[in-house]
Amino acid sequence: MKKIIIALSMVALFASCDDATDIIQPGELGSAAAFVNVDDLATGIFGIYSTVNTSTEINFSSRFTDEVAIGSSHGGQSITLHEGVLNPNSDEARNIWQGNYRAVFRANTLLAAAANITPEPGEENLYNQTIAEALTLRAYAYSRILAYFGEDLENDSTLGTIVLDFPADASTSLPRTTIGDTYDFIFADLQRAETLFDGAGTSYDRFFVSQNFVRALRARVANYRGDTSLASNNANAVLANFSLPTSGNETAFRAIWQDVPGAGAGEIIFNLDVTLNSGPALGSLFNTNGSTLNDGPVFEMSRDVFNILEANFSSNGDVRRPVYIDITSNISATPTADLNPRDSDELVVDKYPGDQNLGGLAGGLRNDSKVMRTAEMHFILAEIAARNGAFSDAAAQVDLVRNARFTTSVTTPTYTSTQEAFADILAERRIELWGEGHRYIDIKRLGQRANVGYDRNAVDCTLYQAPLCDRPATDIETQYMPIPLLEFTGNPAVAGQQNPGY
Question: Which positions ≥6 away from 483 have C-beta within 8 Å?
Fold first, then answer.
């Protein structure tokens, strides 16, 4: 059942921000007036959920890395990003920074108000669960800021984020903290949230954060840090409750992306509900009106990713191939020899086919955001095993993901080095998590270890010179995004704290 609906009574409180300090505007409804009881808090939490918008990250990661090519109906949008241009004035840097700090501000506002509310008898569990949700969503927002803008995710002494645990105002000016301090803040939020969820007896619901998402997020962030013990313990705790299928089933896998109620019950840890009135139109990131050839493809799947899926489909019946690419696609047998592959080789993205239950043109472009999936837990365990030199264990985890998508059993890979293991993990993440906003961070974390950068097929780069087509993992732009210029304009405390190279 669709559940997340933004409360109109909270809109005035949750005004948009111009920088990380979320300046409060004159006449804005204050938290003391907006939140007077536990029911207000429980309603206000939806205003934080509305900021968990993966479309901004999918937009950036797919275009900047090697996930997409220019579509036949492309009108010039994001062309500089696709060419590899990234600087402090880039809209994408601003949008990711600003959007996640908006979530932080909203969480801080609710938490500050909650501190002044005493629950009535019988309201304690709802009160504690709401606080736990706010803490979890704040931790998630900080994990995204850290992943994109943190200087070195495995070096605690390098620069991380601007940590705020209170509702900032126009006078707030704080510098960036270290990576280590940011991790400590995230883990403290997650620990407190887990304790509150447990005490409140919160049950799992894929449309809301709960204990399972807390553990999955802790596993992801601990893996960023290189804390293999913490990451492993939490990934395994999640996998005690979630599991992948043992073999590929096209109908079942397609149903996940069509948002069929109940589909993918063991595969989705947290799923942001998208309705006609709230949430991103993920399909519009790739197509104009719908996910068919006649609906105006704006960005299509990159040729190299398609080639991998096509080879997998031929050899092992990879169900991702027919699910991710629409049947109406115009697929050339000789794309590299075509004079104009943009028109002769059209790989239409169908991973976000729209929710048929929503109806209309808008419904054809809207799908739920799969924020955290079970497959990622297996990839985390594979990375940990590779780090520890347990190559057979790493291969077994990758094998579990591949077998979940293949209709015929796959041969378990054999790794002889850490580099080889990381390269294969990256290769499988590239197709399993394609179009979900992971690729940029994956190359940032593992690219140099795997000797893998952005690898585009020549036909994906027909609008500009070939030297801009590929990019090694050693380039500054693959290591971290620039702190947006607007932050330096509004927050003097960050002076001199731009990421190196920008």
Answer: 88, 93, 97, 149, 176, 494, 497, 498, 499, 502
Q: Please, are residues 457 and 307 in contact by the beta-carbon 8 Å criterion?
A: yes
pLDDT by residue (tens digit) across 476-495?
A: 999 999 999 999 999 999 99
Please say whether the beta carbons of 34 and 10 come within 8 A: yes
Residue 25 has pLDDT above 50, yes or no: no
Rg (CA), the chain: 22
Integer Cα distance of 287 and 324 in angstroms: 13
- Considering only residues 491 and 30, tell me which one the structure prediction assigns the higher pLDDT: 491
| Rounded Cα–Cα distance for residues 285 and 59 (Å) | 6
Selection from 420, 384, 426 nearest residue 401 by Cα: 426
129 DSSP assignment: H
| Residue 466 one-letter amino acid | A
> Dihedral, CA atoms, 252, 255, 256, 261, nearest 10 degrees?
-110
- What is the enclosing helix (H) or strand (E) of 502? none
C-alpha 141/C-alpha 209 separation (Å) is: 13
In tens, the pLDDT along 254-290 reads: 999 999 999 999 999 999 999 888 888 999 999 999 9
Instruction: Tell me the two tokens of residue 260.
Output: 């069929």
Contact present, 263 and 256 (Cβ < 8 Å): yes
Beta carbons of 328 and 309 less than 8 angstroms apart: no
- Give the residue, 83 or 133, on which the prediction is more confident: 133
Contact 487, 169 (CB under 8 A): no
> What span, in angstroms and rounded, lies between the C-alpha atoms of 501 and 19?
22
CA gap 369, 219 in Å, rounded = 20
Q: Which is it for strands 68-70 and 268-272: parallel, antiparallel or unpaired?
A: unpaired
In the 8-state DSSP scheme, what is residue 499? P
Bridge partners of 297? 287
Longest dimension (CA), the chain: 73
Model confidence pLDDT, tens digit, residues 169-196: 888 999 999 999 999 999 999 999 999 9
Task: With H, G, I as helix, E, B as strand and everything else as coil, classify residue 104.
Answer: helix
Instruction: Give the contacts of 378 (CB within 8 A, at least 6 positions apart).
Output: 235, 239, 244, 397, 398, 400, 401
pLDDT per position as a tens digit, 409-449: 989 999 999 999 999 999 999 999 999 999 999 999 999 99
Least Cα distance to 313 among 436, 431, 437, 454 occurs for 431
Phi, psi of 330, rounded to the nearest 5 degrees: -100, 95
- Residues 166, 168: Cα–Cα separation, whole Å: 6
Task: Name every residue whose Cβ is closer than 8 Å to that of residue 442 and which is 6 or more positions away in sequence.
Answer: 426, 429, 430, 433
